[in-house]
Amino acid sequence: MSLSFSLRLILGLLAPTALLAQTAPPPTMADVLATSQPSDWQQPDPDNLLYLDLAAGRVIIELAPQFAPEHVANIRTLAHAGYWNDLAILRVQDNYVVQWGDPNAEDSAKRKSLGDAKTKLPAEFERSSDGLAFTLLDSRDAYAPEVGFVGDFPAARDAARGKVWMTHCYGLVGAGRDNAADSSNGAELYVVIGHAPRHLDRNITSVGRVLQGMELLSSMPRGPAPMGFYTEAAQRIPIRSIRLAADVPAADRSAIEVMRTDTATFQRLIQARRERHEQWFVEPVGKIELCNVPIPVRTPPAIVK
Description:
Layout: H1 3-23, H2 29-34, E1 41-42, E2 49-54, E3 57-63, H3 69-80, E4 88-92, E5 97-101, E6 127-128, E7 135-137, E8 146-150, E9 153-158, E10 163-166, E11 172-175, E12 189-192, E13 205-212, H4 214-218, E14 237-238, E15 241-244, E16 257-259, H5 264-274, E17 297-298
Antiparallel strand pairs: 1-16, 2-3, 2-15, 3-13, 4-5, 4-14, 5-12, 6-10, 7-8, 8-9, 9-10, 11-12, 11-13, 16-17
């Protein structure tokens, strides 16, 4: 058998496979999720989960002690004591934030006691990047030299300064403050419900993000006053309770898993979102921004009823 004939035979046998590889459609996000493995997912620490329970349902918030340790410690203290129970959503500003706390916080005679929690905390706008694993997103950003993920939190990094911080993407939870940078105590919290207000990055302490229940917050009636504040007590949305998952009996906890961002599966998911090849799309953009990268959350399959 001549060499040329052998080559033609090999190429002839390989051609259909090569053609199939060229024409196979790229995976969609649904494909990536369907083929994910248990090792691609992780269960958040119950000590870092807040359950915000409303009449409409439960909002689950994951706290980020790696970014704001003092704020998270104070929030845990407040949650342990039931500080937010029977307080209210005070502000819903369209395309911006939902905010809750004590409506009498400015009245020393009427405000609710913080108990054992600290009344003042240092600003925790950014932290050292030393020793912190960072999954880089290959995408230019208008607000930071680099963006990516620290665990399952969208984040930004300035390697030259050795600093990293959480970014104000949809669902971020932050701690309200006055003009002084160190005027927060973690008792007044907000959630981003609109287009990512990245100008707030490094100007306020970010304490976590919503994992589940965003639809309960984003659909709330907008406040009529400036900045979305409710003008009447009757307009406020009551908070039944805010508890740490660790303080809730196991039978009453919400089973939840979050996709890890340090895996090949997550990289495939990013690519699937960058190049949208679902049938509906006419023009795959080929680009993606940090706050447009979804970090999937699910109920563990064994627990789905």
